Amino acid sequence: MSELVPFHGIHPIAACAGCGRVSWFESLPRAERVRVRAHTCECLATTYELCAAGGLFFVRRTDRGYATPEVMESTWMTMRETEVLWLRLVNGLAR
After folding, report:
1. What is the C-alpha to C-alpha distance for residues 7 and 56, in angstroms, rounded to an integer?
2. What is the pairing mode between strands 56-63 and 70-73?
3. First CA to last CA across the chain, in angstroms?
4. pTM of this prediction?
5. How buried is 53 (Cβ within 10 angstroms: 0-12 exposed, 13-18 middle, 19+ buried)?
6. Which of 60, 63, 59 is nearest to 84 (CA)?
7. pLDDT tens, position by position, 37-85
8. What phi, psi does 44 have (nearest 5°)?
9. In Å, how far are 27, 33, 54, 56, 62 from 41, measured between CA atoms?
10. Phi, psi of 25 (to 5 degrees)
């Protein structure tokens, strides 16, 4: 039986042809504290984090394929809307 590695996140499914496009915006400090509720695996060049702050939720995308990592955020939305976006991202239905 394989042993689970601590802090190992999920691997998103590769984006399908014609998948939805997410509007990504520059990450700006909008709240004092941000809680990461879920995240994808750090072994990939692009990682996603499901975040909560100030009663709203958003997805943070970090692309480490550049000399300086590019950090972007989705629109801040309700929990239900953001969970739908999160599931679409990890299931390859949006990028």
Report:
1. 24
2. antiparallel
3. 34
4. 0.89
5. middle
6. 59
7. 999 999 999 999 999 999 999 999 999 988 999 999 999 999 999 999 9
8. -95, 155
9. 20, 22, 25, 23, 12
10. -125, 155
